[in-house]
Amino acid sequence: MAELSAEKTREPFIRIARRTGIHWYQSWGVRVVAVFLALVVNALFIHGVTGLNPVEVYRIMWTGTFESKYNFLTTLRDMSILYCVALALTPAFRMRFWNIGGEGQVLMGALASALLMIYGDQLPNGLLLPLMILCSAAFGAVWAFIPAWFKAKWNTNETLFTLMMNYVAINIVNALTNIWRGAKSSLGTLNTQTKAGWWPKFLGYRFMPFLLIVAALAILIKIYIHRSKHGYELSVLGDSPNTARYAGINVKKVILRTMILSGALCGLAGFGIVSGVDMTISSGTARGYGFTAIIVAWLAHLEPEYMALISFLLIFLDKGAAQITSAYSVLNDYASQVITAIILFFILGSEFFVNYRLVFRRRYPGMPAPASAAASAGVQTTDADRKEGARS
Amino acid sequence: MTTLIAWINRAVWFGTVIMFGSTGEIITERSGNLNLGVPGIMFLGGFAGFAGAYYYENGTSDPSAALIILIAMLCGMAAAALGGLIYSFLTITLRANQNVTGLALTIFGAGIANFFGVQVLNGGTSVKASTSHAVFATPIPVLSGLGAIGQIFFSYGFMVYLAVIIALVTNYFIYRTRKGLNLRAVGESPATADSVGINVTRYKYAATCIGAAITGLGGVYYVMDYGYGTWSTANSIEGLGWLAVALVIFATWKPVNIIWGAYVFGTFFWLYNYLPSLLGITLPNYLVQLTQMIPYVVTILVLIYISAKQKHESQGPAALGQSYFREDR
Amino acid sequence: MSDHPKIPAVSMRGITKRFGSVTANNHCSLDIQNGEILALLGENGSGKTTLMNMLAGLYYPDEGQIFLDGREVSINSPHDAFSLGIGMVHQHFKLVDVLTATENIILGIGEKGKLDLKAAAAKIRSICETYGFDLNPDQKIYDMSVSQKQTVEIVKVLYRGARILILDEPTAVLTPQETDRLFTIIHNMKDDGKAIVIITHKLNEVKRISDRVAILRKGECVGVYPTSEISIQEMTDRMVGHKVVLNIERPVPKTPPEQKIFIRNLTVVDEDGLTRLDHVSFYMNTSEILGVAGISGSGQKELLESIAGLQRVQSGSIEYKDDSGNLLELVGRDPLEIARLGITLSFVPEDRLGMGLVGDMDITDNIMLRSFRDGRSVFTNRRTPKKLAGKIVNDLDVKTPSLATPVRKLSGGNVQKVLVGREIASAPRVLLTAYAVRGLDINSAYQIYDLLNQQKERGVAVLYVGEDLDVLMALCDKIMVLAGGKLAGIVDPRVTTKEAIGLMMTGGAGKEEQKNG
Q1: What is the reported pLDDT for B211?
Q2: Residue of A180, A339, B81, C366 with fewest CB within 10 Å of its CB?
Q3: Which helix (H) or strand (E) holds C263?
């Protein structure tokens, strides 16, 4: 119910109360402040460790994305892949199915494309590419379907199951690349001569078509989760499985259907990488985006438009780090991981201040307590409450 | 015979790394916190332990074995516990999502370790703390000389035995002490624990930080003994970290199962290198990846099995992965 | 207040507790003596449980003082309450499933030294002997029936040395036999000098077991009386503030009743192999309200869920006569098909949300739950549900800032109105409703009764599972009594008495099969 004492003290000094309402500008204010604080902490970190001027470091990071058209487009390219995976995870997360297996699903999708590029290089691109898309989606879907089926059947823990599936996928890809590369140290770019399975250039760039596909996908996913009957069903299921049952929603079917969709879209991301960016495959093809996308989707509250923002931010940081590495010998590209993680920590923590507010003890012996905490006793939000919340 | 012994030795070394990792993670998960930051924590522990030992070793003319051990382990545990503290603060106090926070912690741990690691490497690809490695790898005197038996059971550095002891102590703690009972209650039903006056927040913090410290020892062992006292950017800590998470499930959240489970995982992991020559055959080398996949596949099978059997005790803590807020009762 | 010469075990003075704008307790004063059983009587929402929660350390009063044996104390946590010798057994048991009885009982006790389960089990056995509990200390909670779980809870507080025991509606989940046993134990504890508070709204139990009765109304203590000196009628009057003239209408339908649903030998066995419904046969008429009476957990939920297609039926048949007179077998059909036939279910669970409503969704989205599939488009239509939501909010007087407010943020009564309103709005042929007035204030409850009557007049076959016998007697055309999963009988409320129904409710029971934890 309403009260929470922070610790077992005599009359708690600080209580935590759930906010009953918050304006969009307040919640975004909290998040902007969080990112800003994270940048300050990062600046202290950079300066403390390397003695560099953090503002200058940030400026150089900025150039990683915004120095040239090329930089900007590569940022967009990588962002579109990450974004695609995050979009893929969204339907699953909306039904509270913890698909931690994006990495494996992307890899399996990539594997399907690579298989076709290697064994189907005689086919014309007009046939090969659609086939690659289809097979990549199918491979990703299968990889997601397996844990989903067991979840539907026996309620097998999907978080751990999908996590394990990643490493099975990584090892399968490792084994196959091992076969393909033979005595060479790595597989190398596939079909450099025939360019079979390479996505055609569009507007001068090979990844451009994929970028456009992802943009369209974002709109479709937004509509799917908010306007379609499927989307409605999985929101009901995510919030209350019992209610879903009562409403005659076939829970198993929705779980399977949604995970097939989620896996297929991850597979599509795998195709995008192999066909439009890497033209080859390795166990690192998914770039860890399967995991990063989980963070992106969650931080964005599973809303596609915010996901675009956050995936852009993360890739921006990544590119910036590469830039500072070449500019300063004392920094290395692992700095980007640290900076990224710290920003993530701050955004994760900031959600608390969006959802809750701290109520400081205002009462004196014999005085009535502030009557603002209850969440269960009906709707009551006063402006004073909100303002107070924003300050805390 | 030598091949077999070598295989067993490998399996034990390997198993020890994940035994620490899993034991720590079991303590954490028993409090209801599913910390997916295990690889990150092992990175933190491994690097801090190495850095401590390396700088001590190079900073004095006559490094003492006891101090090397003390410094490496303390640094490793402290750094790892700090990782656990970040996770705790975010998930317990600030109520952030556990999965997401854990993954961010993995990025953070790997980032910090490698970032400072590059500073230590100073342009090279690997550096070695030879004296420290020697200290950590010292086998049990006398007993290790007892032929095959000595080779199989007594030829390891002290941390191999420490891992087993910690797992046993953890088992005893969880099932035989009051605090262990309280901890189980927190992970199963925090509301119940709260109602009988157990400080859920404190238990969660303590379990996560102590668990992280133990997990961090896995990192220390990885670098100091398993990795021959070498720090390099190309290491497999992350993979082993995830394997430790898998082992927790494989062991159905019981520390005593971790002990043999870790060695079984180790045996599978090194199967490719030793089994063919034992059998006198040669296998194509892509099979190495497929054999290394076995622990994950087996873990999945265990996961399916326990969910299909619906056995209450093997399911893992009932409130695993869920945050507890008293007002949401 | 009583002018007892003894110092009371507990003395609450001027206790006030507010939750936001709602005052749960307003300047309540109450004494509890050693060696007495005090009944705390009040309607749902009268603040009984809140008041006792402050003794148990779950809430801290905003105003007022608490004295134990004449000494002022401050109870900030359940832990404080334990150390002061106060123990409360809540309605929802707080037990860890995978632990044994012993482990649950000693949980959280800050004793030093090793965990000695054997010694603890021995102590538990001796407590059981003293008071007459039947408990196996080594049994795991997940293997226990509801009454066994309750026993664990009571032993838990005794083990901690509680001398002041608070039992929150302890009989709600018990069979009559189990209730008898519990009352014997409570008497033993009283004889042992313990102060016992029973929170209840069952008047006969008040009469049967208590020495004194304290009555709460809308958060205020309206009086404390020796039980022997107050009649049930007087208790009721004070509880509700005015004479309860249960003036619920029972209109005579314009169209004569017709048989609509035939249930034959319906048997339901749950996952644990317990028989929840045992060869139940009856039929439902159109233009009638069929009441279902029974102790909670007698198979009401299973019955409703079976008809709605949500329950796996072991054997028996449920036949539905459609408008053209064809008989359709419902067993084996999926819930969606059954709902399309016009059979709707509104089950109000104890937490109100979780079954039937989606807490994080707004009113419109919740209204859509029944109709979102309409039309062949892959997209949902929001316009019609929005209009309907507006109408329900308007007609039923749902208090909400807007249609876009998540239902989680509405108060209980308003949540229920949304739920019942939605089910009725789908123009059902058969309306199944359970606990529709649970936790509602009297005005809202009457609104719900009116709604049900309107449905009856429309020719709907209504099944009403209720908790309050008076209401059932006044509202229903027929009352079916369930006891231990069996049909104990179907009676006409116009000619039968409450006592007779009460007897039937308890008559057929007596098996350990009310496992509804």
Answers
A1: 96
A2: A180
A3: strand C259-269
Per-residue pLDDT, A12: 55
Identify the pLDDT of residue A31: 85
pLDDT value of residue A183: 73
Per-residue pLDDT of A67-81, as tens digits, reads 888 888 889 989 999
To the nearest whole Å, the CA of B13 is away from the closest chain A CA by: 21
**Per-domain residue ranges for chain C?**
10-240, 246-342+427-517, 358-426
Fold of the domain built from segment(s) C246-342+427-517: Rossmann fold (3.40.50)
The distance of Cα B326 from the centroid of its chain, to the nearest Å, equals 32
Q: What is the pTM of this model?
A: 0.84
B285: chain A residues, CB-CB within 8 Å: 178
Whether residue C16 is predicted with pLDDT greater than 80 in this model: the reply is yes
- Judged against a pLDDT cut of 70, whether residue C45 lies above it is answered with no
- The answer, for C115 touching chain B at a CB cutoff of 8 Å, is yes
Facing A378 at nearest CB: one of C22, C309, C347: C22
Q: Does residue A368 sit at the C interface (CB-CB below 8 Å)? A: yes
Q: Indicate if C246-342+427-517 has the same CATH topology as C10-240.
A: yes
> Which residue on chain B is closest to A290 by alpha carbon?
B103
- C192 to chain B, closest Cα gap in Å: 24
Residue B212: pLDDT band (50, 70, 90) is very high
Q: Which of residues 304-323 of B touch A (CB under 8 A)?
A: 304, 307-308, 310, 316, 321
Low-confidence ranges of chain A (pLDDT < 70): 1-15, 20-21, 361-392
Domain C10-240, CATH homologous superfamily name and number? P-loop containing nucleotide triphosphate hydrolases (3.40.50.300)
Look at the alpha carbons of C151, C157, C160, C162 in this order and tell me if their dihedral is positive or negative: negative
Q: Looking at the DSSP assignment, which residues form a beta bridge with residue C72?
A: C67
Which of C309, C353, C405 has the CB atom closest to A379's CB atom? Answer: C405
Half-sphere exposure of A323 (CA within 13 A, CB side): 22
- Token digits of residue B223: 């670098």
DSSP secondary structure string, B129-163? -HHHHHHHHPPPTTGGGSHHHHHHHS-S-HHHHHH
CATH code of domain B2-328: 1.10.3470
Cα separation, C298 vs A294, whole angstroms: 46
The pLDDT mean for chain C works out to 82
Q: Would you call B318 and C97 a contact, using CB atoms and an 8 Å cutoff?
A: yes
